[in-house]
Design a protein that fits this description.
Blueprint (H helix, E strand, L loop, with lengths): L1 H23 L16 E2 H11 L4 H13 L10 E2 L13 H4 L25 H11 L1 H6 L2 H18 L26 H5 L25 H16 L13 E2 L1 H21 L3 H19 E2 L4 E2 L2 E2 L4 E2 L18 H12 L31 E2 H13 L3 H17 L5 E2 L6 E2 L5 H11 L1
Antiparallel strand pairs: 1-2, 3-6, 4-5, 6-7, 8-9, 9-10
Helix pairs in contact: 1-15, 2-3, 2-5, 2-15, 3-5, 3-7, 5-7, 5-10, 7-10, 10-11, 13-14, 14-15
(2R)-2-(alpha-D-glucopyranosyloxy)-3-hydroxypropanoic acid (9WN) binds next to helix 2.
Length: about 450
């Protein structure tokens, strides 16, 4: 009884602390990932944040997504950053004067009244909208939430499945390492090596004011990120006209697109739109995911580099995320679970799920997406484990997430072996997703 009571006390403390982080990072219309390092609104962060916020205030969770969708471009893209005009330009790089979205004179239809980036992030938004709706369907109906977001989410998915099917095989491509959200993963090294770095001194990083350089991407990475983004910008963010030096089909990005397409089908049903179209799209994309990214010899999903038209060898956490895809063949799911438990990810032995193969030469337990464990990918793997009946492994992962989130003061990521926090603290999606797993 005493143990149960202390468990209840711990949960209540964690809930309060997580709520405190989310309140502190709320700007009045949306949540910043971190007041220090990321003082604007990010697309996939907002989606994850709304999944946690729905337990505190379903209304605020709806608002979070509505604000993001309010910055949607005419061509359907949801920008990866929506800039807060009251934050000084120098607080984050690249700032609005780099992206120049409102000055875009092409057909992309960037909003005139809000500044945004021109690239995208993984499509978690429709899945988040559906989960937010489910938290309080009456409030959602009262505000007409799903009616309002459905056309925008549908346009977003149309953009991804039409303009971003650069390989022509039925998957969406990412054209910048910031787009899959796993910025400096070793999976992008070979593709990125072909990119001519922007000249030294042509840009000034702001991230190093808040983070240890050993925990962040390198200057050379940044020089290439800048070149790719500037090239896209200088081609009016037009996907057909831009000579994409980096174009990759990423398993996590596409798994989220499929899960979100299923969520959109559920939303369509509620708002009286055509559910079947979304189900058919989801099934077609699942077929394409298996055809193009499943590597039977590796027993793993690998990104496809569209410049070489080859799969990228190596085991990144992205390859585990298709576990969330409804209707994944059972033998494929079983192989993924085996890999997750094996020496490369050591699920249940090290903290959460490392972002890259522990046995690889490129693994670095401190440097951002080159090894550290992140809470959003752990939440997704947890969801996949539950889907495939792996309740023991899911329960252990959940306990690790809750413990690590609280113990580290909601760190951005963790060194997988020691569990020490890395990056910033009071990081929004860490708080939000811990809250979701607690509820
Ligand atoms: C660039 C905000 C974002 C996350 C990404 C993470 C990091 C940005 C940066 O922070 O990327 O978009 O400045 O490094 O890699 O996943 O969405 O939290």
């Amino acid at each position: 009884e005493a143990a149960a009571a202390s468990g209840t006390g711990r949960r209540a403390r964690l809930r309060r602390a997580a709520a405190h982080v989310l309140l502190g990072n709320w700007t009045g219309t949306a949540t910043v990932p971190s007041r220090a390092l990321y003082p604007h609104q990010w697309s996939w962060d907002s989606a994850f944040v709304s999944i946690g916020l729905r337990h505190l205030s379903p209304r605020r969770a709806q608002r979070e997504l509505e604000t993001l969708l309010g910055a949607q471009w005419g061509d359907g893209r949801i920008p990866h950053i929506v800039f807060n005009p009251s934050v000084p330009l120098g607080a984050y790089f690249p700032s609005p004067d780099f992206w120049r979205s409102s000055g875009t004179d092409r057909d992309t239809g960037a909003p005139a009244t809000v500044e945004t980036s021109g690239i995208v992030q993984p499509p978690v938004q429709a899945l988040a909208a559906w989960l937010v709706h489910l938290a309080d369907p009456a409030e959602s109906r009262r505000r007409g939430f799903l009616q309002r977001v459905y056309p925008r989410l549908a346009a977003w998915h149309r953009y991804l499945t039409a303009s971003r099917d650069l390989g022509g095989g039925g998957l969406a491509a990412v054209v910048h390492p910031w787009e899959p959200g796993l910025d400096n993963s070793p999976s992008w090294d070979a593709a990125l090596a072909r990119v001519e770095p922007a000249p030294r001194g042509s840009f000034r990083r702001a991230d190093l004011h808040h983070g240890s350089p050993a925990d962040r991407p390198t200057d050379l990475d940044y020089a290439r990120y800048v070149r790719l983004a500037a090239t896209y910008r200088d081609h009016g963010y037009d996907d057909a006209r831009t000579p994409h030096a980096f174009a990759v089909e990423d398993p996590c990005f596409n798994a989220l697109l499929i899960a979100s397409e299923h969520a959109l089908a559920a939303i369509a049903r509620v708002v009286g739109a055509d559910e079947g179209t979304h189900r058919r799209r989801a099934e077609a994309a699942t077929g394409a995911l298996l055809d193009r990214l499943w590597d039977p010899a590796a027993g793993f999903f690998l990104p496809r580099d569209l410049v070489t038209d080859e799969r990228v060898p190596g085991y990144g956490v992205s390859g585990l995320i298709p576990l969330i895809v409804p209707g994944l063949p059972e033998d494929v799911a079983a192989a993924l679970v085996r890999t997750a438990r094996g020496p490369r990810f050591r699920l249940g032995e090290v903290r959460l799920v490392p972002s890259y193969d522990l046995t690889a030469e490129e693994f670095d337990g401190n440097r951002y997406w080159r090894g550290p464990s992140w809470f959003n990918t752990a939440w997704l793997v947890h969801r996949g484990l539950v889907r495939h009946g792996e309740s023991g492994a899911a329960g252990r992962l959940r306990a690790q997430v809750l413990d690590a989130a609280h113990r580290t003061g909601f760190a951005e990521y963790l060194e997988p072996y020691t569990g020490e926090g890395r990056g910033v603290r009071r990081f929004s999606w860490t708080a939000a997703l811990a809250l979701d797993l607690l509820s």
